Structures are given as structure tokens and as C-alpha cells.
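Allow me, if you will, to draw on your knowledge of protein folds for a short while. I have a record of one protein: its chain in single-letter code and its fold written as C-alpha cells. I should value your view on which stretches of the chain appear to form regular backbone elements. Thank you for your consideration; the sequence and its C-alpha cells are set out here:
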Amino acid sequence: MKLDGSKILVTGGAGFIGSHLTERLLGMGASVTVYDRFDDFYAGKERNLAGVAEHPQFRLVKGDILDAEKLDSVMDGVDVVFHEAGQAGIGFSVKHPRQVNLVNVDGTLNVLSLARRHKVRRVVNASSSSIFGQPEYLPIDEAHPTNPTSPYGVSKLAAEQYGRAFYRVYGTDVVSLRYFSVYGPRGRPDQVIDKFTKSLMAGKSPIIQGDGSHTRDFTYVTDIVAANLAAAQCDEGLGGEVFNIGFGSRASVLELAEKLIRIIRPDGKISPTYVGEGPAEFPHTQASNRKAGEMLHWEPKVGLDEGLKMFVDWFNMSTTVKGEAR
């Protein structure tokens, strides 16, 4: 499936991953409509699209995926939908489970129903490693049991299952990508790498929840974008398939803090501060990428050390441009 000249809809396209995906799609010659509600979960999303705002093949529509009528108005003629819109945040979901379910489940159902109505060729759905919960073995493959430990994880698993059901019942081509701990420029300010970097830039200690032994498979945003493009362009039928998308290795939260300290505060005069455990946390994640490699011909490129340096460089540049800390 060629994306050059295709008509693309990116829900949540003003967000972290969606904005990077939008830039790449426009660079490939696609016509891209971003559909985003610009909620107040975190500020500054308008800036994420500043670099493409005047592009002749770009269109921005402010709307909510829960507004089926408005969403229907932007779906006509669309070839591929990248469904990035959703209510993120494990901690947020613990406090607001109904809101998370409403957006991530009902909103996804709207997207799938309208994609079916408009005969969209493929829907690439953003899922999450949070669907797995406590790992029974590492690395985690697609056959690993799914036992989410948070309302967020439950909602993303339900969205996946709706994608599978729409393929089986209606023939709608839906593929879900399970992201593992995505980071990079324009990342959400509640993410651990962003928070650690901001603290260290201000000369403050990074705050670690728990003892720092939790490990995560940190995955750079350009690798996530590449996986989305591979899923969209794959000539094989992918209806109902799910893929783990992570770098394939893991680092502890303490290791992460130490790496950032060496980059930002190499004098070593700052050390982490430990506080209580975060809500609904699970101890480890690490993706098996074998299936994505075999079927999508995708493999990650950016290791953690390289990715952290690029993120810190971007953070410094963006802070300088705005004249203030993020």
C-alpha cells in the first residue's frame, strides 16, 4: 500500500506520537487530516503542529472522537486511519476510570464504525504494553497473557478486541500496535524521561517512585513512527493482527536517572530522591519484536543512550527558543 498521494486521517494528531507521524506522512507525499480535541490533559499541543501548519496537504480539524457526527465528516475518502487519539496515563486512569473507558473504548468504537462505513482500507490502532500487566516471562511476545493492572490497560485491551471483532465480523482491516514506553521530542510532560530531564535542568534531584528497580523497554518515537508506516504499507492482510513495538531491551528507572545525570549534570553532584510506589505499577516490560520483524519488516534503530542524548538536545533547544523552562 503506497502512502504517497493517499488520504490519511490521524486522530490525536496534535499529540506526541501523532504529530511526529503527521510530519513523516506529509514528507512522504500524503494528504493528512489531523483530528484532535486539544484537551487540557497537558498544554502546548498547538506547538506540536507548528512546523506543518502551512503545508498545502495538511488540514487540522478540532473535534472529539466521541462526536460521531463530526468524526464522520472527516472520514469520507480516507485510505488509512492512524488512530492515536485516546486518554493516556495509568495514574489518571486510577482516578478517572469512567473517563478513560469512555474515550478509549467508546471513542475507538466510533472510529471503527465510521471506518467500516466509509470503507477505509486500513486502521492502525495505537495500543499499549499496559495490556499485559504483571509479566509472566520476558521478553513479552504477542502470545503473553493479557492481565492489565490498571483501568487504562483494560481500556486499551478492549479497544484491541473491538479491532479484532470488526475484522472478523465486518472485514474491516484493523491492526493494533502495542507501544512500549515511548519517549522523544514533544513527549508528554508527565512521562518519566521528561520529568527527570526537567528536574535536572533546574538543578533538582529526579524523583523516583519506588526503589528504582522497575525496568521498562524505552522506545524512541521515530521507531514508533516507522512501525506505524510499516503497518500501513504492508501488502499482506493484517486484519485483526497485533504487534509488540518496543526496542527489545530494558533499563531500570534508576539506570535511566543515572544516564540522564551523566548527560545533564556530569559533575555527579545530584542524585535521585525516592518516594512511595506509583499506582497500578508493574515491575518489568521488554518487548519481543520478532513478529513485527517477520511480518512488517520493521526493526528499531535508536538505542537508549543515543535517544536520551537526542532528547536532551531537543529539550535544550526548545527551552531556549521559548525562553523559559518547559
